[in-house]
Amino acid sequence: MAWQLETLDPVFVQRARREGVDALGQTVRRVPAKGGEPLRDVLRRARPGEPLILASYSPFRQIGPYREFGPVFLSAEPQADDVPPLDAILSENHGYFAEYAALRAYDAEQTIIAAALLPVEEIRLQLRQWETRDEMVFAMLRFPAHGCYAARLNRSV
Question: How much is the pTM?
Answer without folding.
Answer: 0.92
